[in-house]
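Researcher: Sequence recovery benchmark, item below. Answer with residues only.
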């Protein structure tokens, strides 16, 4: 197995590779003069199962992930697993007002085309993952984070919206 770290999640990818005792490859990422993303996997051939770790927010990180997926396929990845610590656009999981897109569903369809598995971390709403056709799971980090903060003197914990209120109560 090979773990590739995107620029938004490089430290996490490196730590994951260390825990799994497998090869870590940092993605080489920069921008063209017009602001477009340039990324490269500095290897001749992958010929192994590949894990790409990358947030999909802001938008430029989503584009970087898609480009890394394509590069991994071209280098002979046997399979591609996406680990997405922060899944952008997950909050818009349904149409609330006429004329709005179902952004979460579109993101799933887009990522689903070029991967074999998806792992998210504390996604806004787990039902969003049902839009993937490939195996998927959501890893829960909130209970571990809550345990850490229980040992601290915290006056208030806030939720960004009603959908995440349960996490604030942990």
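Model:
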């Amino acid at each position: 197995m090979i773990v590739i770290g995107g620029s938004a999640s490089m430290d996490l990818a490196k730590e994951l590779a260390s825990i799994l005792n497998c090869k870590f490859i940092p993605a080489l990422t920069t921008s063209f003069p017009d602001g477009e993303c340039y990324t490269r996997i500095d290897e001749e051939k992958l010929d192994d199962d590949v894990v790409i770790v990358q947030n999909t927010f802001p938008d430029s990180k989503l584009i970087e992930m898609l480009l890394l997926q394509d590069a991994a396929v071209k280098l002979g990845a046997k399979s591609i697993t996406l680990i997405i610590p922060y899944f952008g656009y997950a909050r818009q999981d349904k149409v609330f007002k006429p004329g709005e897109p179902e952004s979460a569903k579109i993101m799933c369809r887009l990522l689903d085309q070029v991967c074999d598995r998806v792992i998210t971390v504390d996604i806004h709403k787990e039902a969003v993952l049902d839009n993937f056709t490939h195996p998927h799971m959501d890893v829960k980090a909130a209970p571990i984070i809550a345990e850490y903060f229980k040992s601290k003197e915290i006056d208030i914990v806030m939720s960004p919206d009603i959908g995440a209120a349960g996490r604030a109560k942990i």
